[in-house]
Specification:
Two copies of one chain form a homodimer.
Chain A: H1 3-21, H2 26-42, H3 44-60, H4 65-71, H5 75-90, E1 98-103, E2 109-116, E3 119-124, H6 129-140, E4 144-148, H7 154-164, E5 174-176, H8 182-190, E6 197-201, H9 204-213, E7 226-230, H10 236-248, E8 257-263, H11 264-280, E9 284-287, H12 289-294, E10 299-300, E11 314-320, H13 323-333, E12 338-342, H14 346-355, E13 360-365, H15 372-375, E14 382-384, E15 392-394, E16 400-411
Parallel strand pairs in A: 3-4, 3-6, 4-5, 7-8, 7-12, 8-11, 9-10, 9-11, 12-13
Antiparallel strand pairs in A: 1-2, 2-16, 14-15
Helix pairs in contact in A: 1-8, 2-5, 3-7, 5-6, 6-7, 10-11
């Protein structure tokens, strides 16, 4: 069978599996998830063996040290995967939850109930743990999954998928595409009759490719160009702590701070305090012209700096004359991910939170709290920068849709 | 300026307008909507004059009588448009509603609040009333709209949009694309930086075109291939009434019944009762082989009949041996729109409602109740056959997204 027919057949099988999954109770799903975790632990050796092949091939292909590190599994990482699957088992099941219920004047009783989406395609790159994470989240929510991982991790992914599939799940509930060429992405993206949703997990290039090919909805996890605005009414010591945390606590992640906006009225007092701490942490500052008049040691920022996700120890700083200027800058240059204001003025804070067009808007806390775990979701499949269906941290609930169930006693329209 | 630059400029303007709209209170939006309705009434003559040009051009181009009827406006239809806009003004505003709120152990207070989506593109065909309907629904929910109607209605659409824009809305909140060629659809579909969502309202061809071109999410309103399953435990008189209502009360709409599934155990008693009434209403029956043994007067159904939305006085009938066979047929051949079961057996009903993968699943009521009005939504922009973001009847709430607002006292992650 050619690649196209073979992937389409997996699609048909996924649709059938979704109907089987929809019949499982929460208890049945949880028991299977726990069995998956047990299989991962028991057969850890088979995964490590497969992973060794990927690592050897990666070294031969000259993958970077960082890439090899993302690819590498050890007993601890497999234990973390198993724990992750168990944590998903322990979470409340959104499927079957009643969202709303009401009765119409004609006696018809309508109920809006959360149900699985159906079939979900996950396209990802080199981290093999995504195979277990994504499959567990989709399984818990009653969705059949088609996984398409990167070529570097193919042996590891196959070994993990095989273990997950040996734990009693309905056949074809979790399928891994055995092809890793580009055509397989194009085939998946075209089969909207079999896949209800695609979630790409990876770099901008991968997401762009999927978006331009996909006929079905895609939930995107783009960059985080996150801002913090230090208002004239801010507690400046708090602002220093928050900016330092947001920039330096883990600079390589999407909710790290990239651009700091400071009200000119407090800049002369605030920037020196901040610079002392940031310099000690090795952060490079890139300032607008006004910033440079206060901090001559900063590098001049160019226009591109306002649109860059550094993911590094670099901070762009711009002075603004008002909250409105800060808001306009964020809405124009941000990636609508997570933006924060530091102020003791409640009115300014509320005005800012409402006007900033981002998934997460924060008052007096660090941007780094934009995270499914920190929100209490227990697990997340990613942080959506889309506005449709799911925005911000995506937990189990965002992997469901709903259905209207209406009951009556023979009511007719005519 | 060429078409592409010109439409991109409208996109930029829509984005700016969305930020203005987001600042309006519910009262301000409602006052503007009522002013729009007043303008439509006051300047009814200018719309009728523009419409006369479209009708004359349509007659010259040889449009069908049905097309000309969809296109034609008169005082009553403009009054209906104005009333529709007033009804939208009277509905509760979902924007600003708190969906959830909780506190984390670290003291951070998180709130999930409904906010406008931002900018919405509506691509539609010949009915000029869509201009007012869609613009009002989007305006009420704080979204800026870019409307692209069909060439047949261009004069009417322009006249209506001009009146809507003379009622005090922020500039560019409602924009009508002045081009009606295919390129304008392609340009809209490509500008995902300016449009957060596209909703095509029209036939399958239009939707398919938009889906294959669009880089942003599209909410689709495809066919309604709706089923009713008459279970062995059905009250057969009720089943006759429901099937007749669902098939004949308004056969040309998406929630009309197209295929009737009947349990073999009751078919011999049920089908003759049903056929008497349907024949009197002029309905043509197309039956499976087993049906023909009971109703020799039915035409034999071919395989295509199970996948056809007749929108006409034709009913396909198939006998099944179990609820599971009915469910499998619906999930395979239906369009996941609205499917009903008639039965006095509560267990069978609940099993069916859960297993059928459709936006609306009904027990002992006519399929014709699948409608935003009948659900009590007050107004609808359509009935989504998608599963992502909005499923089934789409009211005002489905034209919003949400934002997480989190507040603290200087919490840091590190």
């Amino acid at each position: 069978m050619d690649i196209e027919s073979s992937i389409h057949q997996m699609g048909r099988q996924a649709r059938e599996a979704a109907y089987q999954l929809n019949q499982l109770s929460t208890e049945e799903k949880n028991a299977i998830l726990r069995a998956m975790a047990a299989k991962l632990r028991e057969s850890c050796a088979s995964v490590l063996e497969a992973n060794a092949k990927d690592i050897a091939a990666g070294e031969e292909r000259g993958l970077s040290v960082a890439m090899l590190d993302r690819l590498r599994l050890d007993e601890d990482r497999i234990e973390a995967m198993a724990l992750g699957v168990e944590q998903v088992a322990a979470l409340p099941d959104p499927v079957g939850q009643r969202m709303e219920a009401w009765q119409r004047p004609n006696g018809i009783r309508i109920e809006q109930v959360r149900v699985p989406i159906g079939t979900i395609g996950i396209i990802y790159e080199s981290r093999p743990n995504v195979t277990a994470d994504a499959a567990a989240l989709c399984f818990k929510t009653g969705n059949a999954t088609i996984l398409r991982g990167g070529s570097e991790a193919i042996h590891s992914n196959r070994a993990i998928a095989e273990l997950l599939n040996s734990a009693g799940a309905p056949v074809h509930a979790i399928q891994l595409i055995p092809f890793t060429d580009r055509q397989s992405v194009a085939v998946m993206a075209g089969m909207d009759e079999w896949l209800d949703l695609i979630i790409p997990r990876g770099g901008k290039g991968l997401i762009e490719t999927v978006v331009s090919l996909a006929r079905m909805p895609v939930i995107k996890h783009y960059d985080g160009i996150c801002h913090m605005f230090v208002d004239r009414d801010a507690d400046l010591d708090m602002a220093v702590e928050l900016a330092v945390d947001a920039k330096t606590q883990k600079p390589g992640v999407c909710n790290a701070l990239e651009t700091l906006l400071v009200d000119v009225e407090v800049a002369a007092e605030f920037l020196p305090k901040l610079a002392v701490v940031l310099r000690a942490k090795g952060v490079e500052l890139r300032g607008c012209e006004q910033t440079l008049t206060i901090r001559a040691d900063a590098k001049p920022a160019i226009e591109d700096d306002w649109d860059t996700e550094y993911l590094d120890l670099i901070l762009a700083i711009k002075l603004v004359w008002s909250p409105d200027e800060a808001i306009a800058h964020i809405n124009r240059h941000g990636s609508h991910h997570t933006d924060a204001i530091v102020t003791a003025n409640e009115d300014t804070a509320e005005y800012f939170l409402k006007a900033v067009d981002s998934a997460c808007v924060f008052h007096n806390i660090s941007n780094r709290f934009a995270d499914g775990g920190e929100f209490g979701f227990g697990a997340e499949i990613g942080i959506s920068t889309d506005k449709i269906h799911a925005r911000g941290p995506m937990g189990l609930r965002e992997l469901t849709t709903y259905q209207y169930r209406a009951r009556g006693e023979g009511q007719t329209k005519g």
